[in-house]
Amino acid sequence: MEKSEVSNVRSKKALINSISSLLSQLVTIICGFVFTRLILSQFGSSYNGITSSITQFLNCVILLRAGVGGVTRAALYKPLADGDNNQISGIVNATQQFMKKVSAIFSILLLAFAIVYPLMVLDEFDYWFSFSLVIILGISTVAQNYFGITYQMLIQADQRQYIYSSLTIATTILNTIVAAILILSGATIHVVKLGSAIVFIINPIILNLYVRKKYHINKNVAVNNTAISQRWDAFAQQAAAFVNNNTDVIVLTMFANIREVSVYTVYYMVANGLRRIEETLTNGIDAAFGNMIAKKEEDLLRTNVKLMEFIVFSSAGFVFLCGALLIEPFVMVYTKGIDDISYSRIWFGVLMCLNQYLFCVRLPYQMLVEAAGHFKQTRNGAIVECVLNIVISVILVIKWGLIGVTIGTFCALVYRTTQYAIYSSTHILRRKIWIAGKNVLINIIEAVIVIFIIKCMPVWNVTGYLSWLIYAVVVGMITMFVIGASSFLFYRSEISLLNQKFKNALKRR
User: Fold this and answer.
1) Which of 8, 228, 258, 376 has the fewest CB within 10 Å, making it most exposed?
2) pLDDT by residue (tens digit) across 428-450?
3) Are 187 and 47 in contact (CB under 8 A)?
4) Distance between CA atoms of 265 and 119, rounded to whole angstroms?
C-alpha cells in the first residue's frame, strides 16, 4: 500500500473513531444528567455526595492498573503495523497476566476500604449502610475497569476505538433505563447501584468475544514482559491523571462535608462532560501518531501534530469559554427545587472549566509522549504534578473550600501541561517551543474579546431551560464568530490541510 493510501486509511479510521466517541460521550453525558437528577430528587444531596465520594475513593485503587494501558498500546503499535501476530499475542498475554495479579490485590484493598470508609461519614450515615454501598460500588468498579481492559487496549492501538464506543453506548443507555425503573419504583440506593454493576458486566463479555474472533490471540505464546517493562514508569503518568481527577473530592470529603461534595460533583459533571466531548476529537489519534513514529515518518508527524494543535486549541477555546459563561446558570436551573445546600458558585464554575481546558490542550503533547513510549523520561514531571495538587489543595481547602481545591488542580495542570509541551517539542517533534505558546496566547486574546462583548450586553435573566438555551445560543454564536475570525487570521494553512484531510477521509477507496 502506498504512503498516500496508508495516510487516507489512517484519516478514515480517525474520523470514524472520533464520530463514534463523540456519540458515546454525548450518550454518557445525557444519561449522567438524567441519573444524577433522579438521585438528587429521590434521595437528596447527601446520597449523591456519598456515592460520588465512594466512587472517587475507589478510583484510588484503580491506580493499580494504571500504567499498563498506555504501555500496552505503545508496545502494540509496531507489531500491529507489521502484522506480527506472535508479538501481539506475547504482549496481550503479558498484560493479561499482570491484570490478574492486580485484580486479586484490588479485591483485598476493596474489603479494607469498605471497613475504614464508613468511619469517615458516621455523622450522616450508618456504618453498615456505608459498608455495603462500598462493596456494591466496588463490584461495579471491577466490572468496568478490570474485565476486558487488555482487549480494550488492543482495539484502541489498532484504531478500532469505535467498537468499544458502540458497546459503551449500548450499556450506558441500558444502565440508565434499569436505574430509572428501579428508582421510580422506590428501590433503595443499594439496589439501584447493584443493578448498574450487573449491566456493566455485559460490556467486557462482548468485547472478549469480539477480540478472540478478530485477532486470534495465541495463549501459548510466551508472555513478553519486556514489551511492557515501562509499566511502572507509566504508572506515574496515570497517577498524575488520577490526582487531577480525584484529589478534589477526596480532600473535600476529608476536610469539608458530603453536601459540598455533591455541589462539586454537579459542576464537575457539566465541566467533565464538556471535556469528554472535546476528547472525542483526539480519540484514535494517538494510534495514528504511534503508527507514524513506528514507520519513522517524522515530517508527516510534525504536520499532523500542528493540525491537531489547531483543532484542539480552537475547539477547547470555544467549548470551555462558553462553559465558563454558562455553567453556573445551567446548574441553578438543573438543581431547581434542591434546597438542602446552595449550588450557586460562579467562580468555582469558571475555575472548573479553566482546569478542563488545560487538561484538553495538553492532549496532543501527552499523546505524542505515550505514542513514542517515553514514559520513563517524563515520569518525574508526573510526580511533581501529584505533589503540587495534593499540597496546595490541602492548604487552601480549609479557608476557601471548593475554590481552594480547584486552585490546587489548576497549579498542577499548568505545570504538567507546560512540561508535556516542552518535552514533546524538544525530544519528539524537534521544533521550537514557541509554537505551543502561540496557541495559548491566541486563546487568551479570543477570551478577552468574547467576555468584553458579552459584558456590554444587557443582563440576561435565566429562569428555566428555555431561557438558558437561548442565552447559550447567543453566547455560542458570539464565541464562534470571534474564534472563527481568529482562525482565518492565524491558522490558514491548517484550515486548508484539514479541509483536504476531510475530503480524503470521505473518498471511497
Assistant:
1) 376
2) 888 887 877 888 899 999 999 99
3) no
4) 22
Q: Specify the residue for cell string 443582563.
A: 459
Distance CA 271, CA 20 (A): 21
Place of cell 453525558: 29
Collect all residues with Cβ–Cβ distance below 8 Å to 414 and sequence separation of at least 6: 358
Q: Where would I find the H helices in 363-433?
A: 363-372, 379-400, 402-423
Report whether 370 contacts 382 (CB < 8 A). no
Phi-psi region of 336 (alpha: psi -120 to 50; beta: other; left: phi over 0): beta
pLDDT at 67 over 60: no
- Interhelix angle 492-506/298-334, nearest 10 degrees: 90
Outline where DSSP puts E strands in 235-350. Answer: none
Per the listing, cell 487531577 goes with 244
The single-letter code of the amino acid at 259 is: R
Q: Which amino acid is at 65?
A: R
**Mean pLDDT for the stretch of residues 286-309:** 78
Amino acid at 271: A
* Grid cell listed for 208: 472478549
pLDDT in tens, 191-211: 888 888 888 888 888 888 888
User: 10 Å Cβ neighbour count for 463?
Assistant: 11
Neighbours of 213 (CB within 10 A): 8
Local confidence band at 482 (pLDDT 50, 70, 90 cut-offs): very high
CA distance 395 to 404: 8
> How many Cα atoms occupy the beta-carbon half-sphere of 257 within 13 Å?
9
Give the Cα separation of 68 and 91 in Å (integer): 11
Which helix (H) or strand (E) segment holds residue 467: the answer is: helix 465-490
* 485 Cβ contact list (under 8 Å, min separation 6): none
d(CA 70, CA 74): 6
pLDDT digits (tens, 9 = 90+) for 80-108: 777 788 888 888 888 777 777 777 777 78
pLDDT at 8 over 70: no
Q: Hey, what's the cell of 156?
A: 484502541
Burial class of 201 by CB neighbour count within 10 A (0 to 12, 13 to 18, 19+) = middle
SS (H, E, C) 436-452: HHHHHHHHHHHHHHHHH
Percent of the chain with pLDDT over 70: 86
Interatomic CA distance for residues 283 and 161, integer angstroms: 8
Total count of residues recorded for the chain:
509
Q: Is the pLDDT of residue 53 over 80?
A: no
**For residues 158 and 495, what is the distance between their CA atoms, to the nearest angstrom?**
27
CB burial of 123-139 (b: ≥16 within 10 Å; e: otherwise) equals eebeeebbbbbbbbbbb
Query: Are the C-beta atoms of 150 and 90 separated by less than 8 Å?
Result: no
